[in-house]
Amino acid sequence: MISENMRQIREKIAEAADKSGRAASDITLIGVTKTVPADTIRQLISAGITHIGENKVQEFLPKYVELTAEAPNWHFIGHLQKNKVKHLVGKISLIHSIDSLGLAQEINKRLEQQNMTQDVLIEINIAKEPTKYGILPEAANEFSKHIFALSNMRLRGLMCVAPFVENGEKNRALFAKMRELAKKIFLEKVLTNLQDLPYTPFPFELSMGMSGDYTAAIEEGATMVRIGTALVGERP
Ligand SMILES: *Cc1c(COP(=O)(O)O)cnc(C)c1O
Questions:
Q1: What is the pLDDT of residue 194?
Q2: Separation of 31 CA from ligand 1 center, angstroms?
Q3: Is any atom of ligand 1 closer than 6 Å to the C-beta of 210?
Q4: 80 lines ligand 1 (CB under 6 A)
Q5: The pTM is what?
Q6: Fewer CB within 10 A of the terminal residue: the chain, N end or C end?
Q7: Tens-digit pLDDT profile for residues 83-118
């Protein structure tokens, strides 16, 4: 089942990438495996998935240990509490969910102590939903300046969890808004004061699009899609 799902998803990714003038290889497919056992993650890895996303620290840690040999690129995509940060530092390729300055500062403090750096994305509450985490779009540019200033963080792009919709087209305008926001933040940084940064934050990543709306997201510029249900089936 997984290999057939994967084939269909890869095909749709390639088609959507083509529509936006890119290649399928420009899009990172992240298999979202919350509530899914480690054995299923192994199947995904055998089928060629190299990026795995988890949203809870307590669920991620045992899987991380169990899959030491497979060593996928782990993505943390859920809301992160400050008191759990210490468990993640050094284990995650990309944290997608920087949603407060306090959290970012806590991560940076741990990184400094361990003399490490961490790639991160800022989570944007693009539809301004009261039930969702993330920085409001109008505050994103100012917020990004604080994150760029943190010594051991590498701000790589933006992420959003768009509203749940039956028809992914309904989120298209929100994805376009994300792209414009990212362009403003990252192009401005590159054009104006790149010299303050010890790394190049460009090209930026746009982590957007899930099972119901990933083709619209890619057509609007997503560089990473986070797919659970369409890959491994409905969660219990
Ligand atoms: C669960 C989840 C996904 C995947 O959602 P599906 O609709 O199952 O593809 C993507 N991103 C985040 C942040 C999630 O929590």
A1: 64
A2: 9
A3: yes
A4: no
A5: 0.97
A6: C
A7: 999 999 999 999 999 999 999 999 999 999 999 999
